[in-house]
Structures are given as structure tokens and as C-alpha cells.
Specification:
There is one protein chain. Helix content is 35%, strand content 24%. The chain folds into 3 domains: 121 residues, D-Maltodextrin-Binding Protein, domain 2 (3-Layer(aba) Sandwich), CATH 3.40.190; 82 residues, 3-Layer(aba) Sandwich (D-Maltodextrin-Binding Protein, domain 2); 90 residues, Double Stranded RNA Binding Domain (2-Layer Sandwich). The chain is globular. Helix 9 packs across helix 10. The longest helix has 28 residues. Strands 2-1-3-10-4 form a 5-stranded mixed beta sheet, with helices on both faces. Strands 7-6-8-5-9 form a 5-stranded mixed beta sheet, with helices on both faces. The chain is of the alpha/beta class.
């Protein structure tokens, strides 16, 4: 087992919080282990003035870090699971999925108003097509504006860009001890979260005899079951571009329940369904739910989005 390891991470405050949490947890579990953080700038970090969908969407925040793992410049990486593409590059694996933080989206409103209370034509900032589509479905009157940058930057833009509200992942706000800023946690009937939202992904080289035993100690079985079910849903649907796909899985005893959604960019069409079954079949449930949505017309929505991106 390794005595010294390097963790690849992005340089944002949230990414560093997540990586430092992994670092301290591993050092606690393995006294004598030396852990170094290596900051790697990704394409998503470098391009801040263009909406994510225009520059490639999923994978923008992980590709350079994955290359560093494969080239053995780092031993493992800590990502936000929602940033992970459906396919993991050959030679790499999801070494662990720790216990999940709150997966919901959160509304941070300048005047403390809930989504229902926001005035007609209110200006809402979000960096996500998924959030934008669901917001437009709920409130077609809202003006949705692109919002990039780290958590602090996006919260500052609430004031500097004269926005009425922003929608952010609750998990990031909670990890950065900014949950006092949350006006409203949006439940899954209003806003279905991104696949894997609130969960971390510990990525490492496949079958690495030194790193595998370390990362395995960080894994949370229930979270892994749920997140792999959500990711199977995404894998079956995703067409290689950033699209309004959402999924939220839950465990109740040995039963797994998954809500999935595909929407048009304007939020007019929203195809949504739920499936429940044995927890040890979460991935096949994810695939079956995706098939059910495709049969109801989700394929046409995804094809239309591919045409736009091409």
C-alpha cells in the first residue's frame, strides 16, 4: 500500500475543500500516509466567459486531471460527481463514492423571495441548461441569464449583475458553510437535480494495487448504489453534449427508486417518469427508465439538441 500519494484537484475553493476532506480522511485512516494536493487547471476553469454548453459541457472540469492520473503525475483525483461524463476513460475507474451531501438545487434570492414569490419577468442566473429548462417549465415568464464562475463569484454576481436570484447546488453551499444564504431548497417536484449531484467521485487508475485499497475505504455503499443507478440512466441517454437531463435516486431499505427527466431547452416539453425496484438492480433500473423516456419521445428532444450543438 502506498505511503505517499498525490491528489489531483481543481483550484477553486470548493474543489480544494473537497480534496482536503479526502486528504484528511485518508490520513486519519492511514497514520503515516503523506498526502499532497496537486492543483490542475482544466478547460472549464480557463474559459469563464462562455456558457458551458458552447464549449463542450460535461468533461470540461475533469479531462486534464484524468490525463494526469493516466500519466502518473497524480495517483487519484477528487471530482464533483455531477461533472463526470457518462463514460470513464479506459484505464481509469471510480475508486470510491463517499456518503452524499444534500443533492438538491438551492435558490438564493436577493430579497429573500421564494421561486413562487419572484416578480413577473424576474432575472435568474444559472450555468446549467437542466436548471434553465426546468425553471422555464415552472415559470415561462422568467428571464434566464448565463452564470459562470466559482461559488463566490456567482453569489457576487447576484448583486453586480442585477439578478433577482441564482440557482446553485445545495451541496456546494453547505460544504462552504454558505447555507445561510439559501432562500429555498427546491424539491424534486420543482427541480430535479443533476445526475450525481451532491456526491463526490474519487477517480483512480484501474486495478492499482497501491491506491485501490486506500480509495475503497472512502466508499459509501448506499450512495454508490444510488449514484450508479443515476449514471446508468445518463449513459443510456447522453448524446455527447450538455443536455437538460436530470435524475434523482433514493434508497428505502432494499428498494431503489429513480425519477428521471429529459426536457427541451425552452422547458415547453418535459418528459418525466419514475421506476422502483430492487436496490441491487439500480443500474438496470436506470437503463430501463431511460428506455421508457426514449419511448415517450426523449430521443427526439436529444436529437434536436445534438443538431443545435453541431
Amino acid at each position: 500500500m502506498a505511503q505517499q500519494i498525490k491528489i489531483g484537484t481543481r483550484g477553486s475553493q470548493l474543489a480544494l475543500w473537497q480534496s482536503n476532506w479526502v486528504k484528511s480522511t485518508l490520513m486519519e485512516k492511514f497514520p503515516g500516509l503523506a498526502v499532497e494536493l496537486v492543483i490542475i487547471k482544466t478547460k472549464g476553469d480557463k474559459i469563464q466567459d462562455v456558457p458551458l454548453a458552447r464549449v463542450g459541457g460535461k468533461g470540461l472540469f475533469v479531462k486534464e486531471i484524468e490525463e494526469a492520473i493516466l500519466e502518473r503525475r497524480v495517483d487519484l483525483a477528487v471530482h464533483s460527481m455531477k461533472d463526470m461524463p457518462a463514460l470513464i476513460p479506459e484505464g481509469l475507474c471510480i475508486g470510491a463514492i463517499p456518503d452524499r451531501e444534500n443533492p438538491k438545487d438551492a435558490l438564493v434570492s436577493r430579497k429573500g423571495l421564494s421561486l413562487d414569490q419572484l416578480p413577473q419577468g424576474a432575472r435568474i442566473g444559472t450555468s446549467s441548461l437542466r436548471r434553465a429548462a426546468q425553471l422555464k417549465h415552472l415559470r415561462p415568464d422568467l428571464e434566464i441569464l448565463p452564470l459562470r464562475g466559482n461559488l463566490d463569484t456567482r453569489l457576487k454576481k447576484l448583486e453586480t449583475e442585477d439578478l433577482d436570484a441564482v440557482v446553485l447546488a445545495a451541496a456546494g453551499l453547505r460544504r462552504m458553510e454558505l447555507d445561510h444564504r439559501v432562500t429555498q431548497y427546491l424539491d424534486e417536484t420543482e427541480m430535479l437535480p443533476a445526475v450525481g449531484q451532491g456526491a463526490l467521485c474519487i477517480e483512480a487508475r484501474e486495478n492499482d494495487p497501491d491506491i485501490g485499497p486506500l480509495t475503497a475505504t472512502l466508499d459509501h455503499a448506499g450512495t454508490r448504489t444510488v449514484v450508479l443507478g443515476e449514471r446508468a440512466f445518463l449513459h443510456r441517454l447522453e448524446g455527447g453534449c450538455q443536455v437538460p437531463i436530470a435524475a434523482h435516486g433514493t434508497l428505502s431499505g432494499k428498494e431503489f427508486s429513480l425519477i428521471g427527466l429529459v426536457a427541451s431547452l425552452d422547458g415547453v416539453q418535459l418528459i418525466r417518469d419514475t421506476m422502483t425496484g430492487p436496490a441491487d438492480h439500480s443500474e438496470s433500473i436506470g437503463i430501463e427508465l431511460a428506455e421508457r423516456l426514449l419511448a415517450r419521445g426523449a430521443g427526439k428532444l436529444l436529437d434536436a439538441l445534438k443538431d443545435i450543438h453541431e
